[in-house]
Amino acid sequence: MSPAARAPRTIREVVALVNPHSRHGSATGAADAAITALRARGIGVDVRSGTDALDARRVAAEAVAGDADALVVIGGDGTIAGALASACGTSMPVGVIPAGTGNDHARALAVPVGDPDAAADIIAAGHTRAVDLAALQAGSESMVFGTVAAIGLDAAVTERAVAMRWPRGQARYPLAAVAEIARLRPHPVEVTVDDEVLRLDAVMVAVGNTPTYGGGMRVCPDAQIDDGLLDVTVVAHTSRSRLLRLFPTIYRGTHVRHRGVHTRRSRSVSVRSADPLPVSADGEILGVTPVTIDIRSRAVEFLVPAL
């Protein structure tokens, strides 16, 4: 679905939410460059950062309630997710200057990664796009997310990768995957997709509002950020050797052609399991199953490249 054309916003003043801990603290240089680039384009920048994830959400809420023309996130997908909780359902546009490990929001929005000047140009131009978010509930924990929710193996891989100090960047994910596959065991799950129920021993369930997670892994390759639907990918349990062969195909999105990989599309998804399985979204570990996820159509506006 093509985003509706709309007149660009006038962007004169922004609140910049900076995560100093993105990429284990190595993103500070990118943040400095991004702030300099915004100011060079005549944009006033109120720089703020949170001491932790909860404090960052407070800062984002204050920014959305204020008089700025946009909330600009300088960081990774987890920092963006915290901002989305505040911007969801409001008229405040969100700008992204990617400075994290995965940067999958930026990929879905065609915002260049590793180029603060190009990202600043997009924000200054003021073109917006209304996109979907997903609302997730896992036990007493809840959040809205923009990219992919992972349940099972992929959530465990994310948890391990985030904790790794070496190597930096996306190279952590394949190493974490090999380690988690080595200790894998089957988990009976029940996946309800709208009115259909799938019962099987599963390795993982991915629920995507966008195609990628983990820095470009195309786990839900046909997902679209503004179609009002969630894409669901369920991988049935199989041998460790077969999973190790399957894993690299996720980067290309061709895993969905393999036997034992089930795909669906829906507005709501719930996952129950015999054993509690880890749940993550936008690269952040949230809780364990059971989990429910619902789409929120056109819930937030991002500043994006002009069509």
TrEMBL record:
<dbReference type="InterPro" id="IPR001206">
    <property type="entry name" value="Diacylglycerol_kinase_cat_dom"/>
</dbReference>
<keyword id="KW-0418">Kinase</keyword>
<keyword id="KW-0808">Transferase</keyword>
<comment type="similarity">
    <text>Belongs to the diacylglycerol/lipid kinase family.</text>
</comment>
<protein>
    <submittedName>
        <fullName>Diacylglycerol kinase</fullName>
        <ecNumber>2.7.1.107</ecNumber>
    </submittedName>
</protein>
<dbReference type="InterPro" id="IPR017438">
    <property type="entry name" value="ATP-NAD_kinase_N"/>
</dbReference>
<keyword id="KW-0067">ATP-binding</keyword>
<keyword id="KW-0547">Nucleotide-binding</keyword>
<keyword id="KW-0444">Lipid biosynthesis</keyword>
<dbReference type="Pfam" id="PF00781">
    <property type="entry name" value="DAGK_cat"/>
</dbReference>
<keyword id="KW-0594">Phospholipid biosynthesis</keyword>
<feature type="domain" description="DAGKc">
    <location>
        <begin position="9"/>
        <end position="140"/>
    </location>
</feature>
<dbReference type="InterPro" id="IPR016064">
    <property type="entry name" value="NAD/diacylglycerol_kinase_sf"/>
</dbReference>
<dbReference type="InterPro" id="IPR005218">
    <property type="entry name" value="Diacylglycerol/lipid_kinase"/>
</dbReference>
<dbReference type="GO" id="GO:0004143">
    <property type="term" value="F:ATP-dependent diacylglycerol kinase activity"/>
</dbReference>
<keyword id="KW-0443">Lipid metabolism</keyword>
<dbReference type="InterPro" id="IPR045540">
    <property type="entry name" value="YegS/DAGK_C"/>
</dbReference>
<dbReference type="InterPro" id="IPR050187">
    <property type="entry name" value="Lipid_Phosphate_FormReg"/>
</dbReference>
<dbReference type="Pfam" id="PF19279">
    <property type="entry name" value="YegS_C"/>
</dbReference>
<keyword id="KW-1208">Phospholipid metabolism</keyword>
<keyword id="KW-0460">Magnesium</keyword>
<keyword id="KW-0479">Metal-binding</keyword>
